[in-house]
Amino acid sequence: MNSSKFSDRVRVRACAIIESNSSLLLVKQNVPTREEPVWTPPGGGVLFGESIEAALAREVHEETGLKVEAQRLLWIHEFLELPHHAIEFYFECSIVGGMLRLGKDPELVDEEQMLLDVKFVSPKEIDRFTIAPDFLHEYFRNQSKLPESISRIVSY
Fold first, then answer.
1. What is the DSSP string of 70-119?
2. Closest Cα to residue 77, out of 129, 147, 143, 2?
3. Mean pLDDT estimate for the chain
4. CATH code for the domain of 134
5. What is the C-alpha to C-alpha distance for residues 22 and 8, in angstroms, rounded to an integer?
6. What is the domain extent for residue 95?
7. pTM for the structure as a whole
C-alpha cells in the first residue's frame, strides 16, 4: 500500500494480549500494510510524553471499550515493511472494567475508521482468521502457555 500517516517514521506501539477462557481478544481492522483486513490484538501508538502503560490502557479502551492493566511484558516485536516501521511491545493484560464493544479511533472521521469488529477467538477458531503478526497465529493455534520471560520476535 501507499504511504499513510503511519509511514516514513518509526512508531512505538503498545499492544494487549488479553485472554479469557483460553480465547484471545482480537480486533479486525484495515491496516495500511495489507490489502485485506486482518485480526490483531488491540493496541496502538504511544503519544509523545505518554507512558507505554497509559498508551496501552487508552488504546485498548478506544478500540474495545475494556479497561485493562498491564501485567507483564511478553514480546518486543519489530515490524519493518518500508515505508512502515514500528517497534511493538506486547503486554499480558487483565480486564479491570468496561464492557466489550467495537470502538472508534478518535483521530479518524467516521468514513476513515479502520476498526471493523472485535471478539474473543478460541484456539479452535484461529485458523479461520488472518492474524497479524504471524507469530501470534502460530502461538495461539498451538494453545501454548504465555512465555515465562520476554522473548523477541523479529518480523511478521
1. EEEEEEEEEEEETTEEEEEEEEEEEEEEE-------TTS-GGG--EEEEE
2. 147
3. 87
4. 3.90.79.10
5. 37
6. 9-153
7. 0.87
